[in-house]
Write a structure and sequence with these properties.
37% of the residues lie in helices and 19% in strands. By secondary structure, the protein is an alpha+beta fold.
Length: 1436
């Protein structure tokens, strides 16, 4: 069963001027809709008559592809709900096809009726592929607004849209920061198009798309980079020929132009599978230019071409094209002699293959196939673009974007010039006074800004493309709000970053600031003295204004501006903020001049480009010498070597546009003045009957060829002064009023930096570069005033083609180098041979990769994958840095931390997050934590970090790992596997040179897992407490609580269980969003009812409290001997244990204690000594199997019981083997490898020097199963004994000191016995000698507690500890006390796994870095100092 929905809005015919101007409407009576169909060529719906609310008559025309038969079915009146209107059968040979058509009345949100036809086709011959039609409950209808009254003129417009609707409903865009649910992708439609045919595809596109489909490996990225380089090289070679022959006649051209349509752009050329398009301004409607409106503004057309390349790069790097099966072409931009070409690889598309957007300037808007619409809208949604209505089709980006269903069956996307929204030019007029009506088509917002903005924005805002969208005003309003946010919030925020950099720069170069800045000079020397530069003021001071330093700082500033999403045209607004900043706040002298230099270089770049275009229009001949002379003449104007230089740099009066023009008001941009003056010159030449020569003309050196109006000294006379051009381009804030009037004289400029930037943007190579830039820059001791410098012909070495390629080129090259380097490193690790030469090669590869990634990063500053790759490279370089002073190591780690942090922030703030993004985010956060751990363990003598910041780096890494595991709990298994892998291959990891960071991160992962486990169990216990208290209240009993006062313990600040427990329950349920469920099946007669507060209450059956059922209820009887607690509490007390024949299999990897004949236990003491004492954590050993039937005894700190050569037992990291001698029952003897036995003496001395086996060498093996965590049920905290003997009930995560040995002393009844509680140190929990109201664990005297077991239907098995008539409980301060209120405790079996693992890594860390560092980590990250770090900066 094929479910097909025909939407009559798929194709809407409009006029081009209507979409671009929004003032004309067409009057077509029938609209045709081509609909996706399985097995049929198309479905054409003709709506004959559409009234105000109801579709009255329609005709369905069905054509079968194979037979060509057509069947018309009349559709009678359709009501407001879907109804079946016709059913018919068509017999074709032996196949019976049953077809059902229904008509649905739908409404657009703007109140115009539409019709939609749903068709279901059932083919009895292919029942296996049938699909059920959508259920009626799942079908969504568009909201129907209130009817509106329209005039007859409006009715004509309505008639044009009869029977039309968007083929996909308008989707609500998810809010920023909340990942959208990705819908299930629709399958591609069956391709039955006959009229398309087989279209040619270029080899560039075929190879490009084939490589993109390959898995990510080194070969793929190398081939991608090679393909992109070849494409760029071909585009440069052919583009140079096309531009050089721009004004030749068609027969004279090497590559002839093509006529393939299109509104914007000039001639188009096709050569070797590459389509070239000129980025020039053209007339499109009634004498109006596309970009300049009333004059030809080629500079703006070149901006639009730059937007197209930038948008294409953003679409590729979004990751959605590959995920959504959308293909894009290869593209590059060629700049030469003032012209710009866009070179695009040819695709198998034509005008007949378009299925999305418009290819004719808005005459026709397509949104044909829902499957394609869904994929394309997913891409645009990733870019934070807002779907909107273009005529009657919903488009996710700009209306003139083109989506094509190519003849090869692939989906293609192209024409990206206006993908991103324009700025609100009405608002920015306060900064840019020139009127630019066509600004929405080339003054666009940066992709970085749009992606980070809180709302999705409309690409077609402030244009006629949304003239039919009822939400057009809302779209414009949102774009206006975003522009206001950019100018009034984001730019001032960026200015604060500049001031921070200026403060650091002034601190570093104090002498230069004091000598060049008047304010700093007065502050340093006062008004009386004059600053004198001594001969010693040298390298570091001269470095301040060197071209390299200035260029590095300027490029970093410009790159950060793009990272914020700030366009270059706002440099004037940024400089205006710096000009208005008081000097006492910050001295921004240097940065003001750098910004002025950059703006001047960009203005002069446009001047050179404009005049080169005019020169080519004048000569109309290919060549090189006239253009060299023109560039040299302009360079001399800029370098104060021309008579017109002073006017160009200092004047604020524009040149007259005609005779008698005395206006001093700037009427346009520099392109406007050049274009007007050149057209006047052309008119004057025509009046003199002078015509430019052709290529075949003999007049090759006539007056036109060497015309001095555009060469020599006269070139400066027609230029718009720099201050006028700068205000026109960068706004009125770029230059202050004092600078504008010229009262301060020529503005200071870094002349060497100016020419360096100018040549870089024009790809001009000067002789003696870069030394010539330092000569132009002057001496840092002088004021930065321009130095006259005359450029001669030999100075201009070459004016080359400048090509801008896709972000993919540098990114692919960097990835190939990165994978090659890591492949070499893995080979070294596998061979286990450390080769310095191989590591040097890896380092060189990564340095090259870093440069490639930096170039890619400069193109797209917010590409997360590039940032993460840069972080990986910097991390490796920091780990293997050989810099003895450590500055390079510090820089590498700082850069790695910065890149990872930035990349994680970008991934976290994406509006739409796919599974691949989530995986990348997890890997990035884990890598970020590893970078922090590695940086924290960098050698101190390398000065990579400050001593006081090491603890902050540890704590930052701990917080990162904890946050990741808390947000993604499924990482628990991964952490566990990684820890096991490191434990299993510990020798391999420890053999590495940089293993300290791995040890630290592993310790933190273990602690994180412990914290997560405790958190989960605490949530369960809190929910159980809530259920228990709720049930008690339902029974008419008060909730179990502690009294507020306790006279027996003389502590007045006791808290109730309901208080602390209730708060924990509320906070836990609020965070988790879970509602506790009632686990006991015996209470199913109670009903769960949500209360008004959001928590549930139990509603008991209406049974009186004194009913027989209530009186007959008795507590469950518990048998201590039948419980598992009996064997856990005192396994060694059973008389049958002596009769057990002990073997190694029964004790392997089990905690045991070795009890000597004196009743004491072998224990590990401080300073690696061994002695005997009471049973405590140091007396617990775990036997491990070793070769030759021997064992190794390991304690909780992963240290071994060993022996020295003189027969002394020691605690060592070496593996000392013991042979077990079984003596019957549970007694053994331990024999060392030298044949001596472990023995004890009457005085408690342990030695390994006895050859004979006597009673002192006999030890009884006891399985330690009486070690528990004691958890207070009301507070969910653990009873914790500190090393000082103080006892608290505050620990949320159980540790080794939270464990207690529960010794059974004697039995009472079935559920009652007497026990003794001993801490991990072996001390008894009892009352302090000096304060009988305080419980401590400081001595070994027995303190008996009455131990009683309870079976609670909510909490499960609990216990109470009673002393006399008082119970062990906790007060509000988290201290254990004795009170008369019964408090339940839970016994949790002590699990030594985590403690053993973390102790082993602590031991390795202690061996390599000493005990103080381990103690600092334990107390600072996981201990008492942790709270102090939360209020301080984590990373300095």
């Amino acid at each position: 069963m094929y479910s097909l929905q025909a939407s009559t809005s798929s194709v809407a015919k409009t006029t081009e001027s209507d979409e671009q101007q929004g003032d004309d409407d067409t009057d077509a009576s029938v609209y045709e809709t081509v609909v996706e169909e399985a097995g049929y060529d198309g479905l054409v719906v003709a709506a004959r008559e559409v009234k105000a609310q109801v579709v009255t008559v329609a005709t369905v025309v069905q054509t079968h592809q194979a037979t060509g038969y057509s069947h018309k079915v009349p559709v009678i009146e359709a009501s407001e709900t879907e109804q079946e209107v016709s059913q018919y059968e068509v017999i074709e040979d032996t196949v019976t096809i049953t077809k059902t058509a229904t008509v649905t009345r739908m409404e657009h949100s703007y109140g115009k009726p539409t019709a939609s036809i749903n068709c279901y086709y059932e083919d009895p011959t292919d029942l296996n592929q049938q699909e059920e039609p959508p259920k009626a409950a799942e079908k969504q209808k568009a909201p129907t607004p209130a009817p509106t009254v329209t005039s007859r003129q409006d009715n004509k417009v309505d008639n044009n849209e009869k029977g039309t609707s968007t083929d996909t409903p308008r989707k609500s865009t998810p809010s920023k920061g909340s990942p959208a649910q990705v819908p299930q992708k629709l399958p591609f439609p069956v391709d039955n198009r006959i009229s398309v045919g087989k279209l040619a595809n270029s080899a560039w596109s075929e190879r490009f798309h084939a490589l993109l489909a390959c898995p990510d490996d080194e070969t793929k990225f190398y081939n991608l980079a090679a393909l992109a380089h070849d494409f760029q090289h071909a585009a440069e070679q052919y583009g140079r020929i096309i531009i050089s022959e721009r004004f030749l006649t068609v027969p004279e051209k090497t590559i002839e132009p093509l006529d393939i349509g299109g509104i914007a752009g000039g001639d188009k050329y096709l050569c070797r599978g590459i389509l070239f398009k000129f980025a020039i301004d053209t007339v499109f409607h009634s004498g109006q230019y596309m970009y300049g409106n009333d004059f030809c503004n080629d500079a703006s057309a070149m901006k639009a071409a730059g937007h197209e390349l930038r948008s294409l790069a953003r679409i590729i790097t979004s990751g959605e094209t590959e995920h959504e099966d959308v293909n894009v072409p290869l593209m590059t931009i060629v700049d030469y002699r003032g012209f710009r070409l866009t070179a695009v690889s040819v695709l198998p598309i034509s005008k007949k293959t378009i299925c999305y957007g418009s290819h004719d300037g808005g005459r026709t808007v397509y949104a044909t196939y829902p499957a394609f619409n869904q994929r394309l809208e997913a891409i645009f949604q990733r870019l934070n673009l807002k779907p909107h209505l273009v005529r009657t089709a919903t488009i996710g980006a700009c209306g003139d974007i083109e989506g094509h269903w190519g003849s090869d069956g692939l989906l293609y996307l192209l024409d990206f010039a206006r993908v991103f929204p324009p700025e609100a030019f009405k608002y920015t007029e306060r900064y840019f006074p020139l009127q630019e009506p066509r600004a929405p088509f080339f003054k666009l917002l940066r992709p970085e800004f749009v992606a980070a903005y809180e709302k999705p924005l409309c690409s077609d805002a402030f244009s006629g493309w949304i003239s039919r969208d009822p939400q057009a005003r809302q779209h414009n309003k949102e774009v206006t709000e975003s522009t206001v946010y950019l100018c009034e919030t984001l730019i001032p925020k960026f200015v604060q970053e500049i001031t921070h950099a200026a403060k650091n720069d002034r601190e570093r170069y104090k002498d230069v600031y004091a000598m060049r800045c008047a304010g700093c000079m007065v502050a340093s020397w006062g008004d009386k003295g004059k600053y004198h530069v001594s001969a010693e003021a040298s390298r570091t001071e001269r470095e301040c204004t060197s071209v390299d330093t200035l260029k590095r700082q300027l490029v970093h500033l410009l790159h950060n501006a793009h990272t914020y999403g700030i366009n270059r045209r706002y440099l004037g607004l940024i400089r205006g903020h710096l000009l208005n900043m008081p000097h006492q706040d910050c001295c921004t002298w240097k940065f003001r001049i750098m910004l002025y230099t950059e703006m001047a270089a960009r203005v002069c770049k446009n001047i050179i480009r404009s005049l080169l275009r005019e020169k080519m229009k004048e000569l109309k001949l290919p060549g090189s010498e006239p253009y060299r002379k023109l560039v040299l003449s302009l360079f001399n104007v800029f370098s104060w070597a021309s008579p017109h230089s002073a006017r160009f740099w200092t004047s604020h009066k524009p040149p007259p546009l005609h005779d008698g023009d005395t206006s001093e008001e700037v009427k346009g941009s520099l392109e406007y003045y050049i274009e007007r003056l050149c057209r006047q010159r052309d008119q004057a030449m025509q009046n003199k009957d002078q015509k430019p020569p052709s290529l075949n003309s003999s007049q090759t050196h006539g007056t036109i060829w060497l015309d001095e109006t555009l060469l020599g000294d006269n070139v400066g006379a027609m230029l718009l002064p720099l201050r006028c051009a700068m205000r026109a381009k960068f706004g009125i804030k770029a230059i202050s009023e004092e600078e504008w009037t010229g009262e301060a004289g020529p503005l200071p400029i870094f002349q060497g930096l100016f020419f360096d930037r100018l040549c870089s943007m024009l790809n001009i190579v000067l002789d003696d570069a870069p030394g010539i830039y330092e000569v132009l820059n002057g001496d840092p001791i002088r004021q930065p005033m321009p130095v006259p410098y005359e450029f001669l012909d030999p100075h201009l070495k070459e004016h080359m083609v400048r090509a801008k390629h896709m972000h993919l080129v540098d990114s692919s090259e960097g990835m190939a180098l990165l994978l090659n380097a890591f492949k070499r490193e893995s080979e070294i690790d596998a061979a286990k041979q450390i080769d310095s030469e191989s590591f040097e090669k890896i380092s060189r590869l990564l340095h090259f990769a870093r440069e490639k990634f930096r170039n890619a990063f400069s193109s797209i500053p917010d590409h997360a994958q590039t940032l993460l790759n840069l972080g990986r490279v910097e991390h490796w370089l920091g780990l293997h840095c050989q810099d003895t002073e450590g500055f390079a190591m510090r820089d590498h780690f700082e850069a790695a931390l910065k890149h990872f942090t930035h990349g994680v922030q970008i991934l976290e703030h994406r509006a739409v997050t796919s599974k691949a993004d989530t995986d990348t985010l997890i890997e990035s956060r884990l890598k970020l934590a590893q970078v922090l751990c590695d940086w924290s363990m960098a050698p101190k003598d390398a000065r990579a970090i400050k001593a006081e910041s090491q603890l902050h780096l540890w704590y930052k890494a701990w917080l990162e790992l904890t946050a990741v595991l808390k947000k993604y709990p499924f990482l628990k298994d991964r952490f566990t596997e990684e820890i096991k892998h490191i434990v299993t291959n510990k020798s391999t990891y420890l053999a590495r040179t940089h293993n300290s960071g791995i040890l630290v991160s592993t310790i933190m992962k273990i602690e994180t897992l412990r914290k997560l486990n405790a958190r989960e169990s605490r949530k369960v216990l809190v929910a159980q407490n809530q259920l228990r208290d709720t049930d008690r209240l339902a029974r008419g009993k008060p909730a179990s609580s502690l009294p507020k006062t306790a006279s027996a313990s003389n502590i007045a600040s006791l808290f109730g269980q309901s208080d602390i427990g209730g708060s924990l329950i509320r906070s836990s349920l609020t965070r988790s969003g879970e509602t506790p469920t009632r686990p006991q099946p015996s209470q199913r007669d109670h009903k769960w009812s949500p209360s008004a507060s959001g928590f549930g209450t139990f509603i008991r059956p209406k049974t009186p409290k004194d009913s027989p059922k209530a009186k007959a209820r008795k507590p469950h009887k518990l048998s201590l001997r039948s419980s598992s607690l009996h064997t856990l509490l005192h396994p060694h007390c059973t008389p049958q244990q002596d009769d057990i024949q002990l073997d190694f299999d029964s004790i392997e990897d089990q905690p045991i204690a070795l009890r000597a004949h004196t009743g004491e236990y072998i224990e590990a003491r401080d300073a690696d000594a061994v002695g005997v004492g009471i049973l405590n954590s140091k007396a617990v050993w775990v036997p491990k199997r070793s070769p030759r039937n021997t064992i190794i005894l390991v304690n909780s700190h992963q240290l071994n019981l060993g022996y020295s050569s003189i027969g002394e037992p020691v605690i060592t990291r070496k593996q000392c083997r013991w042979e077990i001698v079984y003596l019957g029952g549970a007694e053994i003897a331990l024999k060392s490898s030298n044949g001596r036995y472990l023995s004890t003496s009457r005085r408690g001395i342990v030695s390994v020097d006895k050859h004979a086996l006597k009673s002192f060498e006999r030890f009884k093996v006891e399985l330690v199963k009486n070690r528990f965590y004691l958890r207070c049920c009301p507070t969910t905290s653990y009873l914790d004994a500190k090393p000082s003997g103080q006892v608290t009930v505050k620990a949320k995560v159980p540790k080794e000191r939270s464990s207690w040995f529960v010794d059974h002393t004697r039995e009472g009844s079935n559920v009652v016995s007497m026990v003794n509680l001993r801490s991990h140190k072996g001390y008894t929990l009892g009352l302090a000698a000096d304060n009988p109201t305080t419980l401590v664990a400081q001595d070994t005297k027995e303190f008996h507690w009455e131990f009683r077991r309870h079976q609670d239907e909510f909490l499960g098995e609990t216990v109470t500890f009673k002393r006399g008539d008082q119970y062990l409980t906790s007060n509000q301060l988290g201290m254990p006390v004795l009170a008369s209120v019964k408090t339940h405790w839970m016994l949790e079996q002590f699990d030594p796994t985590w403690a053993t693992l973390v102790a082993g890594f602590y031991a390795e860390l202690q061996a390599s870095h000493g005990t103080p560092m381990v103690q600092e980590m334990q107390s600072g990250v996981f201990g008492k100092k942790k709270g102090k770090l939360k209020s301080r900066d984590l990373v300095q």
